Amino acid sequence: MNGETSLQSIPKAKNATLSRKNRKIILSYIVLSFLSLPVFFMYLWLFFSSVSTEMIGGIIPTSFTFENWRFLWENVEIGSRQLPSIWQATWNTFLLAGGLTIIEVVISVMAGYALSRMEFPGRTFLLRSVILLHAFPSVALLIAVFYVLDTLGLIDTLWGVMLVKAALQIPMSTYIIKGFFDDVAWDVEWSALIDGCNRIKAWYQVVIPLVKPGIAAISIFSFLAGWSEFLLLYTFIFDDQNITLATYLQKIIGDFQMVDYGLLTAAGLFYMLPVIFFFIFTQKSLMQMNMGGNKRV
């Protein structure tokens, strides 16, 4: 009799445990949903504002129009100023973000491997100063960087901004990718060397495929950093042919007394769309990121 009672109590205990887990999950979803509401409403307001001529109380749209999106098919005029083509700005933004990603990933992967696997003079000091280099504010370097770019003939060029941004981003990317190399067992690399690979072939054909999530993560960060860059572009770019979407928005704002807020919200939404799609398709790689760069210092 006691045995039957104990057998009957097991499913009840399991159900009680599942019930507690479900309550915690539901509570977590409620809290996260509540905290996300302000962000969701901000995006919703941005969308309504971009496709309406007037909003009641600044919230409810009264009539819909695509006039605010006219920058897609014509060069917008604000006062006596004519803004450059949005498509030229979009191409320049892709060029900056893509070029920055290639430079940063190539250098960071090689530097991260060297810091993780090799012994050389100054390695420990270099590794410990990586975060300090990333934490150094770029605004403090603007004047010095201006003189350097001017001397090299790179002022008012996207290449100049790309190289400066890469120099500021590479330390952090190196720190991140080093953590992925640290997690690759030495036995794997030694096996490749025993099988006849030289060091470069073992690195390229055996180790690199194992750190693909890390490469994807620093690629995403690099692209987003290039896409959202504003300060360096605003300081070192003067020609409208080299304008990007970030500085295009600044030109829409221009004189604060003549701001077309409908146009501004539409252009802002256009600026965000590639980033949103980029995040949707790459979020799985971001979730696999490992920040163990301080391993084997």
Strand order of the largest sheet: 1-2
User: How many H/I helices?
Assistant: 12
How much β-strand is present in the residues? under 5%
Give, in order, the helices and strands.
HEEEEHHHHHHHHHHH
Average the pLDDT over all residues and give the rounded result: 82
Major sheet? 2 strands, antiparallel
> What is the radius of gyration?
26 Å
Shape: flat
- The class by helix and strand makeup works out as mainly alpha
Query: What's the total count of β strands?
Result: 4
Low-pLDDT runs of 5+ residues are none
Distance between the termini: 63 Å
* Helical content band: over 70%
Oligomeric form? single chain
Protein name: Carbohydrate ABC transporter permease
Keywords: Cell membrane, Membrane, Sugar transport, Transmembrane, Transmembrane helix, Transport
Family: Belongs to the binding-protein-dependent transport system permease family. MalFG subfamily.
Membrane topology: Multi-pass membrane protein
Description of the molecule:
The termini are far apart. It contains 12 helices and 4 strands. A hairpin with a 3-residue loop joins β1 (55-56) and β2. The chain has 297 residues and is mostly helical. The model has no long low-confidence stretch (mean pLDDT 82). α6 runs antiparallel to α9 (212-228), α7 crosses α8 and α11 (245-253) runs antiparallel to α12 (261-287). A two-stranded antiparallel sheet has the order 1-2. The protein has a two-stranded antiparallel sheet with strand order 3-4. The chain crosses the membrane at residues 26-48, 94-113, 125-149, 258-281. It comes from Fervidibacillus albus. Pfam families: BPD_transp_1 (PF00528).
